[in-house]
Structure formats: structure tokens, C-alpha cells
Amino acid sequence: MIPWKLLGTAKTSRNGTELRLYQRDNEFSIKADNQELMNSQVHGSEDALAKLACEKVTNHPAVRVLIGGLGLGYTVRAALDELKADAEVIVSEIIPDVLEWNREFLGHLADHPLDDDRVTVQVEDVAQMIWTTKGGYNAIMLDVDNGPQAMTQEGNEWIYSPKGLESSFAALRPRGVLSIWSTDPDPAFTRRLLKTGFKVEVVKARARSGKKGGGHYFVWVATRN
Predict the structure, then answer these.
(1) What's the chain's average pLDDT?
(2) Which helix (H) or strand (E) segment is 10 a member of?
(3) CATH label, 41-224, candidates 1.20.140.10, 3.40.50.150, 3.40.50.720, 3.20.20.150
């Protein structure tokens, strides 16, 4: 078997978790310490995170969307494929090394999404961007951790808290959409979204894009009424 090759390491800004980028032949993986966060062969749910949100807003005027977490670039690519030529896609990535990995090693995986003129990248905490924006986005897509039980970045729990959800609600334009990726379902979080005022759908998404079998993840699609 071809061994994994370590391409880079990075420390997260809050709790010091070490991210590692690995390659094995044509396969790439990012791990947090020893737990895999994402893999280039398993990105169906990342695609769904963007598609489910963007298909609801693509016909809105002057579409502006925010993506929290660059990852391997698949969510950004799926958003670009769904949106029109005049849309604006803002990517928030708090770890500069992840941005550099995409430019140096990973861009080809999702057809170089960062080269698209519609994309702007900000090395900033997505929570701060949500907190400081009012009515600025047609969609917010969050894949910043394993879901409401935040793991990689200590402090991500704010995003999933009532205050965080209220801020996301306020940051959206009318009929805007908040989509959130998670490894597991969480009925309590669904209730929290409903209490905030969102109309909520929980979608079970295949891990492997377009392929039967394998695991599933979950995407909350919350629409501002």
C-alpha cells in the first residue's frame, strides 16, 4: 500500500490543535491531531452544504454569500457552480496555512475555486464576520467543525448558541439561508434554530458524492422567514 506523505502542519489559533495535511497518491486528507476532518474522496456532504443553500438564493438580486471554512475547496466550488456570474462569494478561513495548502497542493481537486473572480478570501474568524454584519448575506454556509459539538476551534460553540444563531439570522437578508454541516443529527439544535425564527429542514447527505453506500452526514438548511 502506498504510504501517506505529510505535506504540512498548522496550529489552530485558540486551543493549539495541530492540523496535518497528508497525501497518498491522488488522495488528500486533513487531520486534527489524529482525527480525520476531511478527505478528497469523501466530499458529497460538503457539496450538499453549498448546493442546498445556494439553489434557494441564486435568483435573488445581487447575491452575496459567506462560506465559513475553506477545507479542501469543495464547498466553494459547489457554491460557484450553483450561483450566477454576478454573485459574490466570501470565504472566511481563520488558519492561513489552510489557504496556502489550497494554493500549493489542493487547488486542482475542486477545479481551482480560489481563481474564480467571484471569490474573496478573508483570513478572519467567521463568527466575527457574522457578528459584525447586519443583513449582508443571502446565504451563510458553515463547515467550521464537526457540528454543534464544536471540536477543532475552542469558541466555535458560540456559532451554535442562541446568541450565535440570532446573529446569523440578523446577518441574513430576507429569505436568506443558513446551512450548517454536522457529523451527527442533533434534535436540540434543530429546536434552537426553530426558536430563533428559522424555517428548518435537516438533510441527510451522502459522504461520497453520487455514490451509493458509505456513510452519511447531516446538513441543516435554515431559511429566514
Answers:
(1) 92
(2) strand 5-11
(3) 3.40.50.150
Four-residue CA torsion sign, 147, 77, 64, 200: negative
User: Domain segments of the chain: what residues?
Assistant: 41-224
Q: How far is CA 60 from CA 9, 180, 184, 203, in A?
A: 40, 21, 31, 23
Evaluate if residue 151 carries a pLDDT over 50: no
Q: For the CA atoms of the chain, what is the radius of gyration? A: 16
Estimate to the nearest angstrom the gap between the alpha carbon of 45 and the chain centroid: 10
Least confident of 68-72, 111-115, 135-139, 213-217: 213-217
Residue 154: pLDDT over 80: no
Residue 79, all three cell numbers: 457554491
92 in Cβ contact with 66 (< 8 Å): yes
